[in-house]
């Protein structure tokens, strides 16, 4: 382990300098020789490193999602060229190149963090052996050796003997208890981080070998942390526990606000987004507009949760736009007719259907007033002769009850024999 850590000695001086700077600040508050001053210096170092690694974390998320999307295509390539490993590798590389993904991108945060981890291990190991390293001089070395975190020295390990622990001014029981608790918390936080990724942020509609690999890592990583943790100094355990807690919180934030399409987290997010948008009638965050824009762009390729979201907006009278905003849809326009905004259109829709000639003649024969006669009966204007409302039913000619013969122009001749403002003349028999 010392050989591996020495390979990263080029970064030991910057790491030790950062720790000393934080120690000078916390030392004024808690005292320079306390475990709080040195422990919080290590925690602050972790936070500073993780803030710098946020861009790599974003790339990791994109790479992981891209790999999940490519899993069906990768499975097809494996089945097609299962007997030709070289061709299989070539097709895989071609697929990665066309999609712009890199399998190593998901490991970028861990790879970028490893130099700082080994440099910190090298610094704490120097404190345990009593040797100065980086910018840590003799006075700082003596102060660090006096620092205890819950009774355990900063440089003590779980595997240390009683003589070495006593030389650091502590008891073996305190060191074993503190280191065991930290190892358990470190493994549990790693397990929970991987578990929430598998149970909430994985596309459940696609079953691929990638999911099985992630499920296996969910159990392998905690065991690895427990095995290697017994050889880590207390200061390194503080570092690793802090970075695990940071990763867990960071991932919870991403899962809640930017979930993987098709996952349970997306279903929960779209349900919250539906309530928010329907209540306010608009989107207020840029992240919301980005997700709605992606859903609209998918078109027919939307998954079940995305279709439910679009349907919920439609029922609420809203429509998702291509730019990620929402606008009032057709259902909202119909609802506005009650307020008179589209009263003209509503009036047109309320007009009765126009009756045919046979329906009008049938209604006149049976004594039922037509729509036009009913409207004029309610008005104060005199009824014209066209309506025949002044004549009794028995005075009407029986010929009106008979349907007109084919080819005859009975309506035009009947209208031409009418007089305005007077009684009708009897119809003359038609000439054959």
Number of strands: 4
Silhouette: elongated
Most strands sheet:
2 strands, antiparallel
How large, in whole angstroms, is the Cα Rg? Answer: 42 Å
Calculate the terminal CA-CA distance, rounded to whole Å: 121 Å
Summarize model confidence as the mean pLDDT.
Answer: 75
Strand order of the largest sheet: 1-2
The fraction of residues in strands falls at under 5%
Helix content: 55-70%
Query: Which runs of at least 5 residues are low in confidence (pLDDT < 50)?
Result: 331-350, 366-401, 404-421
Please tally the helical runs, counting DSSP H or I stretches of 4 or more residues: 19
- Strand-pairing-aware structural class: mainly alpha
- SSE order: HHHHHHHEEHHHHHHHEEHHHHH
Structural account:
- With 432 residues, the chain is mostly helical.
- Helix content is 64%, strand content 2%.
- The chain has 19 helices and 4 strands.
- The protein has a two-stranded antiparallel sheet with strand order 1-2. A two-stranded antiparallel ribbon has the order 3-4.
Q: What's the SSE blueprint?
A:
Layout: H1 2-6, H2 12-30, H3 35-52, H4 54-80, H5 85-99, H6 108-129, H7 138-146, E1 148-149, E2 152-153, H8 162-167, H9 172-200, H10 209-229, H11 234-257, H12 264-280, H13 286-298, H14 304-315, E3 318-320, E4 326-328, H15 330-335, H16 343-350, H17 357-365, H18 371-378, H19 410-416
Antiparallel strand pairs: 1-2, 3-4
Helix pairs in contact: 2-3, 2-6, 3-11, 4-5, 6-11, 9-10, 9-11, 12-14
């Amino acid at each position: 382990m010392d050989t591996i850590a020495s390979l990263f000695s080029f970064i030991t001086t910057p790491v030790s300098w950062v720790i000393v700077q934080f120690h000078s600040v916390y030392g004024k508050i808690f005292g320079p020789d306390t475990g709080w001053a040195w422990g919080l210096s290590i925690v602050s170092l972790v936070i500073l490193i993780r803030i710098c690694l946020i861009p790599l974390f974003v790339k990791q998320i994109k790479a992981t999602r891209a790999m999940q999307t490519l899993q069906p295509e990768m499975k097809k390539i494996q089945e097609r060229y299962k007997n030709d490993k070289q061709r299989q590798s070539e097709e895989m590389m071609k697929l990665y190149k066309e999609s712009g993904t890199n399998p190593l991108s998901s490991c970028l945060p861990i790879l970028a963090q490893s130099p700082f981890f080994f440099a910190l291990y090298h610094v704490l190991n120097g404190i345990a052996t009593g040797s100065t390293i980086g910018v840590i001089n003799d006075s700082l070395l003596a102060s660090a050796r006096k620092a205890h975190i819950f009774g355990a020295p900063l440089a003590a390990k779980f595997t240390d003997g009683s003589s070495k622990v006593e030389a650091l001014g502590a008891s073996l029981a305190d060191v074993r208890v503190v280191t065991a608790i930290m190892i358990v918390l470190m493994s549990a936080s790693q397990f929970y981080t991987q578990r929430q990724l598998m149970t909430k942020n994985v596309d459940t509609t696609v079953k691929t070998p990638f999911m099985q690999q992630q499920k296996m890592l969910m159990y392998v990583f905690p065991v690895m942390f427990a095995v290697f943790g017994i050889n880590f100094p207390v200061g390194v355990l503080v570092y690793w526990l802090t970075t695990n807690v940071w990763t867990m919180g960071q991932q919870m934030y991403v899962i809640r606000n930017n979930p993987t399409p098709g996952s349970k987290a997306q279903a929960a997010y779209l349900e919250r987004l539906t309530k928010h948008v329907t209540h306010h009638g608009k989107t207020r965050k840029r992240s919301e507009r980005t997700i709605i824009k992606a859903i609209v762009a998918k078109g027919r390729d939307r998954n079940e949760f995305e279709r439910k979201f679009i349907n919920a907006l439609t029922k609420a009278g809203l429509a998702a736009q291509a730019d990620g905003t929402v606008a009032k849809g057709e259902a909202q326009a119909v609802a506005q007719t009650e307020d008179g905004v589209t009263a003209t259109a509503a009036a047109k829709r309320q007009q009765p259907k126009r009756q045919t000639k046979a329906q009008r003649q049938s209604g006149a024969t049976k004594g039922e007033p037509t729509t036009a006669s009913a409207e004029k009966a309610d008005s104060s204007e005199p009824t014209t002769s066209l309506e025949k409302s002044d004549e009794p039913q028995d005075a009407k000619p029986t010929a009106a009850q008979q349907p007109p013969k084919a080819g005859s122009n009975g309506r035009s001749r009947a209208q031409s024999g009418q007089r305005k403002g007077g009684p009708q003349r009897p119809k003359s028999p038609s000439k054959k």
